[in-house]
Specification:
Blueprint: H1 2-5, E1 11-16, E2 25-32, E3 37-43, H2 46-61, H3 64-67, E4 77-83, E5 86-92, H4 101-104, H5 108-122, H6 127-131, H7 139-155, H8 161-172, E6 182-184, E7 193-196, E8 199-203, E9 210-212, H9 229-239, H10 247-268, H11 272-291, H12 307-315, H13 354-359, H14 375-380, H15 390-403
Antiparallel strand pairs: 1-2, 2-3, 3-5, 4-5, 6-9, 7-8
Length: about 400
């Protein structure tokens, strides 16, 4: 198959590159007579085939000029061939090791490199996205997309009214959505990152490449519990020279909305176990919000939710359910997320105070500009089960229409 995809390829040896039989791709590592290492991937599902096609479009859009602006390598498409009603794609294998988010943020140098890598993606010129026909979202488009997601979650009847109100306040806050969209990776996670010599050496899984909210590439870092997780954000903000005062708040919002996505996944797939799991986590988030209602940042703002709270929350969501069409990076076809090792990096000291200076948040605090909602107020806006009623959802839809 590989020789059909790449004329003149002389394969010396191969080995399986898929974990069990449960992955989205059937993959193999190839080594030719010259020692060049290649990956061949065959999608096993329709969603995997769609992702692979989007990834190819993105890789072709990332021209030599665009790649030269990035401090890391991007996969290089080598060839393709028909395979069992789909197509097998061959890429050059990028060097580097994969680590989980905790390990990536357990070393100051690696965390700083991660922040600079994300900032470099966000600094790419946006014109090539349009030229390639890739998605482009304005700030208002991003806001509307979040409102639509909240509406869908509310329509299930399982969304607690306290969270509906909290998220409504975030979408109603004009200041939160005053940002300049930029080029984003779109499905960034620890699985996307390759490390060599304590620095980001490669980034995989570009199917979500678009112009969008930069906070979408950052929210996964909120689940990182390494000592230098804050350093990654500090370095990113410094490299981007600030200018987006609410990017951490939006990243926190996207992190919380992962629970809504998990709920919708359960509803759409008619999986009661997933629905029950999502309801339990949503109830836990409500408890976290109300437990901290006595510690508002100001009389006009809502309760604090700490980064550590979100870490715990995201840890409970299966990795496959996180993100908008979370990709399966080619270097992790062979791994379960649970199999990633603990950090192999040495400890070192943290960097500057740029994160606090640019955002006004401490290491453990972030919030939305919302009014604190008392249990009595919540009760007035819920049915007997304590979830958002149809009237709540209709009111939210009306607000959405008035903002468009």
């Amino acid at each position: 198959m590989a020789t059909s995809a790449l004329s003149g390829l002389d394969v010396a040896r191969t080995r399986k590159y898929s974990h069990g039989g449960t992955g989205m791709f059937d993959s193999a590592l190839l080594v030719d007579r010259d020692g060049r290492e290649l990956i061949i991937r065959v999608p096993m599902t329709q969603s995997a085939e769609t992702e692979q096609s989007a990834d190819l479009v993105a890789l072709r859009a990332l021209t030599v000029g665009n790649r030269s602006r990035l401090p890391f390598d991007v996969p290089q498409f080598v060839g393709q061939t028909p395979a069992s009603g789909t197509r097998a794609i061959v890429y050059e294998l990028l060097p580097g090791d994969s680590f989980d988010a905790d390990a990536l943020t357990s070393h100051a140098g690696v965390a700083g490199s991660l922040g600079r890598a994300i900032a470099a993606v966000h600094a790419l010129p946006t014109a090539f996205i349009q030229d390639a026909g890739l998605p482009q979202q304005s700030a208002q488009d991003c806001r509307t997309g979040v409102i639509d997601l909240i509406d869908r979650a509310a329509a299930t009847g399982f969304l607690p009214a306290a969270l509906l109100r909290r998220w409504e306040q975030a979408t109603d806050d004009d200041a939160l959505w005053q940002f300049a969209p930029c080029v984003v990776h779109g499905s960034l996670s620890a699985d996307s990152i390759l490390i060599t010599d304590d620095a980001v050496s490669g980034v995989l899984g570009w199917a979500g490449l678009s112009v969008n909210d930069p906070a979408r590439d950052l929210h996964w870092l909120l689940a990182a519990r390494g000592q230098f997780a804050e350093t990654a954000m500090e370095t990113y903000i410094t490299a981007r020279q600030g200018g987006d005062a609410h990017i951490v708040q939006r990243a926190m919002l996207y992190a919380e909305l992962e629970l809504a996505r998990w709920l919708l996944h359960g509803v759409d797939s008619h999986d009661q176990a997933v629905i029950d799991d999502a309801i339990g986590m949503l109830d836990g988030l409500v408890g976290t919000v109300h437990d901290r209602s006595s510690h508002p940042l100001s009389p006009e703002t809502g309760p604090i939710m700490t980064v550590r709270d979100v870490e715990s929350m995201l840890d409970e969501i299966p990795v496959a359910a996180r993100g908008n069409g979370q990709h399966t990076a080619m270097h992790t076809d062979t791994y379960d997320a649970a199999e990633f090792a603990e950090s192999d990096f040495a400890d070192s000291e943290s960097g500057s105070e740029a994160f606090r200076d640019a955002t006004g948040f401490t290491e453990t605090e972030t919030h939305f500009d919302t009014e604190t909602e008392t249990p009595a107020a919540t009760a007035q806006r819920t049915d007997g089960a304590g979830v958002a009623t149809g009237a709540d959802a209709d009111a939210h839809a009306a607000r959405r229409s008035s903002s468009e």
